[in-house]
Each structure stands twice: as C-alpha cells, then as structure tokens.
Amino acid sequence: MKQPVRIAVTGAAGNISYSLLFKIAAGEMLGPDQPVILQLVEIPQAMDKLRGVAMELEDCAFPLVHGISLHDNPFDGFRGIHYAMLVGARPRSKGMERADLLEANAVIFAEQGKALNEVANRDVKALVVGNPANTNCLILSRNAPNLAPSQFCAMTRLDHNRALGILGNKLGVNPSDIDGVCVWGNHSPTMYPDLHHAQVLGDEAAIDMIDEKWYKDEYTPRIQKRGAEIIEWRGLSSAASAAQAALDHMHDWALGSDGRVVSMGIISDGSYGVAKGIYYSFPVLCEFGSYQIIQNLHINDYGQAMMKKTEQELLEEKAAVDHLLPKETAASREELGTSSRSGQTEFDAGIDTGESYYKADRIC
Ligand SMILES: NC(=O)c1ccc[n+]([C@@H]2O[C@H](COP(=O)([O-])OP(=O)(O)OC[C@H]3O[C@@H](n4cnc5c(N)ncnc54)[C@H](O)[C@@H]3O)[C@@H](O)[C@H]2O)c1
Ligand SMILES: O=C(O)C[C@H](O)C(=O)O
C-alpha cells in the first residue's frame, strides 16, 4: 500500500466540491491504490455546512480515505499538502464590476499563496478553479516565491473537455476518438478553441470535416460562453462538469496524459510569442509529473489574432491587480519557467504520513 498523500480542497462546502470530493475519495484522481488525506478548507461562516459534507464522506466508508480534517484558514489547511484544489472564490455579486471581483479574489489568493509558500510540501501542485482562474493563479504564484511558477495551474480543462464533447457530438464520434484539440488563453469569453491541429480517429483532420462558418460563428462562441449557457439553463453555474475537469487536470498532471494533448493554464515562457509571466492556456503533454508545451504548431492569421486578443485581456487583468502583486523576488524564479520541480514522485519533505486509518475525531 502506498503512503497517503495530502490533498487540500478550498470552497469544500460549495457546489463543485460536492461532486469533486467524492470522486477524489473514490480514487478517480490519483488511482485506486493511492490513499488520501483530505484537508478541507472553508470560510468560518461555512464550517457547519462543511461538517455535514465531511459526515457524508465518512458515511461512504471509502477505503482510500485515511483522514479528513476541516479548517477555516489556509495556514492550517495547507500544512504538508501535496495537492491543492483551489475552488473557493468570491462570486460576482450584484453591482460588482469585473475589476471589483478581481480585487476581492486577489486578497483571497494572495493569502492562499503565502500559506502554500509557508506550509505546503515543497513539491505541491496547485490548481486554481475559482474565477477569474488565470489571474487568481498569477496572484497565488507571485505570493509563493519559494515555489516554482510551474507548480501552479489555472483550470482550462473544462473548456478543453467542452471543445471535445461538442465537436464529438457534431461529428458523430466519441470524444475519445479526437486528439489535438486545444484551448488557448484565458478562461473567459476571449478564449480560443483551436481545431486546426485536431485529428479524428487518428488520421482525419477535424478542420476538414467541419464547415468554417460553423466553426467560427457557432462552435467558437458556444465554447467561449458555455459557462453562461449552463447558468441560463440550470440556474446555477456548472458544477459536476467543473469537478470532472479538475479531476482530469490533476490526474493527467500527476500521472501523465498518456500521449494525448490537453489544455492547461500555465505560466507563459514566451512560447508562441505569448507575453512571459501570465498564466495562459497552452496545449501540453503531461508525463512523469510535469507538463511540456507542444511547440511548432502552425498558427494561421485567424489563430494569431484570436491568441493576441485573449493575451491582451490577461495583460489587462494583470494590470488591474498589479498594485497587489509582490515584485518578483528572485531572477531564478523566471528561469525555473516550465522546468517543473514537481516532477518528483517521492513525497518526503518531512510531513507526517503516519495516519494509516480513518480518524473520525479529525472531523472537528
Ligand atoms: N475554471 C473553471 O472552469 C470553472 C468552472 C466552474 C466554476 N468555476 C468557479 O469555481 C468557483 C466555485 O464554484 P462553485 O459553484 O463551487 O461555487 P459555490 O459558491 O457553490 O462554492 C464556493 C465555496 O467557496 C467558499 N469560499 C469562498 N471564499 C473562500 C475562501 N477564501 N476560502 C475557502 N473557501 C472559500 C464559499 O464559502 C463556498 O462554499 C467559482 O469562482 C466559479 O466561478 C470555475
Ligand atoms: O462561466 C462561469 O461563470 C462559470 C464557469 O467559469 C464555467 O465556465 O462554467
């Protein structure tokens, strides 16, 4: 039996987590032989609800769950963690402008970055789900100067999965028969779902199987605004599909994407001319616990314009929170680029992995 790994989930009493936690506990993220200790983090006002969720986890009697602890602050909740699923965020409320939302969340992610920097395992992998995910991820990373920027990701896997699912439906093929789809840029309506490098059933170019007008005028805006479409029909934002995407992202990052192209919001190293230092979604392959950007894809004029537009939006978001970003402290951080320190699979940075049984008294 492997040693348990510690996974923190913030916003653990919210909608996405109500799906995500049970999938992690069932072994769907890190495999059926990987025990987990769940460190659930919420705001103080949501601790009662969180206790109810933890009771349900207990009632599932998951064999892989070797511990559950509940926390109302990240400095306790992130202690010794190997994985951080950062779902909790301030939602947009009435009268709130985009800049207000950026600023409100900047405070949350700045604190969480400091906590990761101080108390997480040195090889931690952190995924930001809470919106605006890319810029929250930038704030998080900049507040954790002792961790590499490549240890942080913003979630664009839901957009990637949507791009596969909707294309598969159009072509009448299973989404798993399509590879090479990618989503560039921001998790926002400026994102660019790119089908120019996608293959169907191994050898047919997806772009040749669809009508250009449908691609540009129907498919692209549909992917870009799918979140709003779900809210319109369901009355709530996507939750189960977001949880599945978070799970897929972390699974592939940790265990590999098996040769398949996936989209991840990662620190830009300047590839494809994208400004360095923003979290931008690129096509990547994952192996041995790290990711590599796929290089040398031909980008046509349309694609270049789309990629610039979403880059521009991220630069504007960055400018809006710039006054809250600590300056880069070490030139070496930049050099760390995408050469992930989190490629190691051994977790040995002095954490207590002694819990080999479920401790009900940890639900407190
Ligand atoms: N990146 C994506 O693809 C994607 C997809 C769907 C949703 N989202 C975003 O994910 C976030 C969560 O969605 P949800 O439907 O679960 O929302 P929700 O409102 O149901 O749950 C959010 C939870 O976060 C908690 N929270 C707020 N601030 C916190 C903090 N500082 N620390 C810990 N917990 C905190 C709240 O108490 C709440 O329980 C939202 O920002 C949403 O927009 C992103
Ligand atoms: O669009 C939203 O507000 C929710 C989420 O980011 C989504 O893409 O479903």
TrEMBL record:
Gene3D superfamilies: Lactate dehydrogenase/glycoside hydrolase, family 4, C-terminal (3.90.110.10), NAD(P)-binding Rossmann-like Domain (3.40.50.720). InterPro entries: L-lactate/malate_DH, Lactate/malate_DH_C, Lactate/malate_DH_N, Lactate_DH/Glyco_Ohase_4_C, Malate_DH_AS, Malate_DH_type2, NAD(P)-bd_dom_sf. GO terms for molecular function: L-malate dehydrogenase (NAD+) activity. It holds the Pfam family Ldh_1_N. The keyword Translocase does not apply. NAD(+) binds at residues 11-17, 105, 112, 129-131. SUPFAM superfamilies: LDH C-terminal domain-like, NAD(P)-binding Rossmann-fold domains. The active site is at residue 187. Residues 156-321 form the Lactate/malate dehydrogenase C-terminal domain. Residues 5-146 form the Lactate/malate dehydrogenase N-terminal domain. Keywords: NAD, Oxidoreductase, Tricarboxylic acid cycle. It catalyses: (S)-malate + NAD(+) = oxaloacetate + NADH + H(+). Its EC number is 1.1.1.37. Substrate binds at residues 92, 98, 131, 162. PROSITE patterns: MDH. It is an enzyme of class 1 (oxidoreductase). GO terms for biological process: malate metabolic process; tricarboxylic acid cycle. It comes from the Bacteria. HAMAP family: Malate_dehydrog_2 (MF_01517). Belongs to the LDH/MDH superfamily. MDH type 2 family. Catalyzes the reversible oxidation of malate to oxaloacetate. This is Malate dehydrogenase.
